Amino acid sequence: MSNKAEKEAVSRDKAITKTSFIGIITNILLVGFKAAVGIISGSIAVILDALNNLSDALSSLVTMIGNFLAGRKPDKKHPLGHGRVEYISAMIVAALVIYAGITACVESVKKIITPTDVDYSLVSLIIIGVAVIVKIGLGLYFRAVGKKVNSSALTASGTDALFDAVLSTSVLASAIVFVATDGKISLEAYVGAVISLFIVKAGISMLIETFNEIVGRRADRELVNAIKNTVCEDECVHGAYDLIIHSYGPEKHVASIHVEVPDYMTADEIDDMERRISNNVYAKHGVIMAGIGIYSMNTKDDEIRALKSRVISLIATHETVLQVHGFYLNKEKATVSVDIILDFETPDMQAETATIKKELETVFPQYKFNITMDLDA
User: Fold this and answer.
1) 128 neighbors 172 (Cβ within 8 angstroms)
2) CB-based burial of residue 79 (10 Å sphere; 0-12 exposed, 13-18 middle, 19+ buried)?
3) Assessment of whether the complete model's pTM goes beyond 0.70
């Protein structure tokens, strides 16, 4: 890892730790104030709102611990680092949030069935109002830092905090309605039930998001395009294809790619090019290029270039084909190699590939076609 990359990693870790710590302290203070108000007033909605803040504090704590564990240096058992620990910690938080939400829902339903007296004071209303303002400020701060250091966890926490502010506002509104009607209209148990459902929904969303990361989701399109553009900046590269990015935690990516180069390049020149590409991609995007495959491009025969155009045009007539690349004709062996990318909605990709191969060999019987089906990654 270069000195620049190390400094950026350290800076990112410090920013996440600092922001998470601020979130923990702020949410704990909110829990204390809201819990006191809820207990004194007998409001289940305020108590559940405090519980929601407690889950936020726990989320920040687990994020901080997960970031610390994920930042440990690679070792013999984990040569690519410990970045995926963050996903495990996120799943733990999601499970706790879901449990808290379900428990809160049960308590709210009990309060709806068996109502209890509630008593709000002016101080209680002021505390809840201040809590709303604090939560909005915390949410905006989390989102700003999250975008700056490219931390999806912090950005999500910021969005969640802003949403919590909306829920707290509903609690405040129900309290004001209760006071304004001299206790004739009590909505706090119903508001508590609604809050609990949103807590459960947030936990499920978090669980699904983390599950997708572990299973392996499609790489960010902006990052994919940026890496391909960087690769194509090299004077020897005439096309970049089949970029696959493997995630080993946030900001820890390993990738492979195919590049198209002229058929007159020597092994020495290709080796030099691959090293340049790897260094440039890592310097600009922090992604390790674990492998660079080579497509040889015919440059010595105008007839071959004309045939290439015809082959690509014929393949492109199939609506299921998203891309054609990697064309190479070997005259001595009378073989044509070409790669295609099919839409995932294609009913039978193998059958479609076989159909395309048959059509090509019918139109160009003098050649044997080797068609490779690549993934639309």
Assistant:
1) yes
2) exposed
3) no
